[in-house]
Amino acid sequence: MKLTREMLGGTPLKEDDFAKGKTLFLDDKLRTAYNWDAGVAMGKFLAGLKQGKILGVRCRKCQRVVTPPRVFCEACFAPIDEWIELADSAVVDSFSICYVRWDASRIEKPEIPAILLIDGADRAGIMHMLGEIEPDKVKIGMKVKAVWKPEKERAGSILDIRYFRPVR
Amino acid sequence: MGMKRVAIVGAGITKFMRRGQETGRELSYHAASMALKSAGMTLDEVQCVAESTGPDAFDGVHMNGEYLSDGSGGWRKPYLRSYVGGGSGVFVVNHGWYQVASGLFDTCLVVASEKMSSCHPHPQGAFLNIFDNFIERPLGCNLLWIFALEMNRYMTVHNIPHEQIALVSVKNKKNALDNPAAQIPEKVTVKDVLNSEVLAWPVHRLDISPTTDGAAALVLASEDVAYKYTDKPVWIDGVGWCLDTAYWTNKDLYYPRYVEKAASMAYKMAGITDPRREIHVAEPYDPFDYKELHHMEGLLLCDKGEAPKLTEKGVTQRDGEMPTCPSGGLLGCGNPIAASGTMKVAEIFWQLRGEAGPRQVTRECRTGLAQAWGDLMQVGTVIVLRK
């Protein structure tokens, strides 16, 4: 059976089909709101951020130290109750230089999201932004440090860290 | 294992489009009815239906699988939607397979459809909700980030030039020129890809597949009844799937271990010990050009870091030794999330039957593979087909 266009259902629309009223549609929005519980592990992590600390946990079974914290080890499926204060420094595991927003609109000053392996954890990273650096100077393997909001502005949020900057 | 052998006996697909006039239900009907017609089967003979579609948020319809059921031939039948993100299109065929392999049903209609264009201003708005609500979404995430981070890691670990990666986009868009279902078949050069707009470095616009409306469908039959519908059944000899952790920033993104685990499961079932020799044609998942290469490595079709070099040598062209994405892939055909993977299985079905027309690969092929991927760099779904 050789595919031909005639066999295929589907009517591609063109932009001006809408303006010319060739096709009908309905515009609407879903209205939903959520109030998410932080949970036990994330709650403690966020409370740590408020104090200017990045917390991790250690699985007593496999000894792995990870962050973001969790109350169980997904590999051992054992409970985790040992909390560790990690450094607020990290190694850049990967990064991007991003010129678009989620809705595909363009931004002038690019953002630099990165995966940051937090010092003191076993190859466990979080995603955050890089700052105080020109995009073309960023390298994988680079050492960086958290830049915190002033204590009174911290809210127990990932945004209590403004960004990570290179270690000079 | 006491399982029945299961064959694919028919396939159908719609035109893949940026925006189609049809609803998801209408698209499902077109693909499903084409598949039934190609198998010479009526809906009365369909004993169960396996359906897949992406996140309900694309359509803004809660329990979208139920809404789509009539168009999928599910009226008053044992009907179930399965959904594992981008991996769904291959998984839903695995899901149909076990319905029949178990002996519970002799026939199963598999239908996957996606209507992405309804979500405004961009379906990314729905994708974004996959990121962690506490520590990722507040950063103002963009779905491209996760691909850019993975691509950069992959390129850096293996020291891969972007030129080699761009060759995948060039190949797949060219292959799509022979596919009447394709959305963006194009002749482009490596230079065009590298000169296209940088969206999230290292990702350029032409490294990415577009958003798409479309559907694909397959008809499955047990070994007891398959020859009633065709004298050229294509057998599902191996299935595999695997889900990795949602803590995606905890793992090294340079290599998709979950794809390797899924492939190993499928190879073991199919009795394949040397996939590089035993797989003759493959449809690895290619929502981004680097992803085809990443997946070839995870599928053990080459060494880690070797896929870009094979691509440069022409090994993965239609006339090469290991043709990949002869359909045109998602880069050329478009990427209607759940339907994408099912389209890939349909293409391997046509290739193994020698029915791919101008898309037919040059080498003789008896065994083929399709794979899909999804979520936070998490899910691998694999199927091995033999004629």
How would you portray this structure in words?
The complex is a heterodimer of chains A (168) and B (387). Chain A has 168 residues and is mainly β. Chain A has one domain (40-166). Chain A has helices at 15-19, 40-50, and strands at 54-58, 65-66, 72-73, 78-79, 82-86, 89-95, 97-100, 106-111, 113-118, 125-129, 143-148, 161-166. In chain A, the strands form 4 sheets. In chain A, strands 10-9-6-11-12 form a 5-stranded antiparallel β-sheet, with no helix packed on it. A 3-stranded antiparallel β-sheet of chain A has the order 2-1-5. The longest helix of chain A is centred in the first third of the chain and has 11 residues, at 40-50. The mean pLDDT of chain A is 96. With 387 residues, chain B is of the alpha/beta class. Chain B has a single domain (6-121, 210-386), classed as 3-Layer(aba) Sandwich (Peroxisomal Thiolase, Chain A, domain 1). In chain B, 36% of the residues lie in helices and 18% in strands. Chain B has helices at 24-39, 56-59, 64-68, 88-101, 124-127, 143-158, 162-175, 190-195, 226-229, 257-270, 275-278, 289-298, 307-313, 329-333, 337-352; strands at residues 6-13, 48-52, 79-81, 107-115, 198-201, 203-204, 213-222, 234-243, 281-283, 367-374, 379-386. In chain B, strand 5 and strand 6 form a beta hairpin. The mean pLDDT of chain B is 97.
